[in-house]
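We include the pair:
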Amino acid sequence: MTTAKKTDNKTLKKPQESIRQVILDKAFLRFGRYGYGKTTMAEIAKDCEMSSGNLYRCFKSKKDICADCGSRILKQRLELVQKTINNKKLNPNEKLKVAVLEVLNYMHYNFSEQPALMELVDFISRERWAIVKEYMEQEKLLISEILFQGKYSGDFNISDVLETSIWIQTALTKFFSPRYMEASKLEELRREADGVVNILIRGLK
């Protein structure tokens, strides 16, 4: 008599997670073209070539899809900063500048040509602000990590790293905010970001 093998829960989760990522990809494209308000669950399901019933098995509502799309953008931004921090070829001055420009490039790419995505931003700001707050805390910690490295190497002269990270995060808001991406050319924003970061670095010495 053969005994049925016990199914690993992790094995079951992998295909479902893959399906969720496809849904988020398709939803993000539709939100970018038509906006959050005009997008329906039925349309997202059609884009994914699945039934509405299967879509609802993965996400309870359009709000949940929108929130996860927003979370994924924020997560990818953090990953860009972390990748820069891990680059041992860069000194702390370069890490701060490269991190800012990488995030700016990413945000401009996603939002300059898809102004309808601002509806997604407005929804998250209005109804899922906790997601944004959590991200901002993580972003602040990553900035602190660059500052700690600079303090340790002697590149920065900082008495309170955590407090300084708050001021730097505030100073960089324009270059991380979706609202500035559609109205300005990337070259202009990069020039401004480069100037602001240079001033910040001089102030950290």
